[in-house]
Amino acid sequence: MNPAPCLTALSLRMLVFVLLAILLLPVWAAAGAGPVPVRVDLPLSKDDRSVLVVQTGAGEHSFSLAQLEALGLYRVSTSTFWPGDEGVFEGPLLADVLKAAGLDDVAEVRVSALDGFTQQIAREDWTRWPVMLATRKKGQPMTTRNKGPIRIVYPRDMDPQLADARYRLRWVWLVKQIEGVSR
Questions:
Q1: Do 5 and 15 lie in a common domain?
Q2: Can you give the pTM of this predicted structure?
């Protein structure tokens, strides 16, 4: 038996598979199928009610969902610390929101939730990783029932360090306020 025909058929299948994977890679990336947030072009929210207050030394900035999403929407597919909560999230990057409010140079921020929970997030986090203020999950606006309308989302699957339990409390949901903190 001559192994050449089998080898040729196997090589051809492998070549087709590799070429197909190369062709689909940009599609997968554009769909946000990976652990790194990618910019997406979605219809922006029309909700102009204030949902977030950002406190600065010079006063406060109120943002509606429409204003937040106008800063740029990103999509990430990531696991979380809670079973059944993983998924695809969309929203602006925390760094972009802080810059728009004039807090891009603070050492850390205090994030407050509707339920009274607060957590401080160091500048190192939003400069090292693309931390997101998610406004949507799987393309749908998040209600308070599903941890919205805004929640902090880290790209947990992007870096093994983000699986460390110390980052768990930084995934604040029901976000209502962010304020700059001096060290």
A1: yes
A2: 0.79
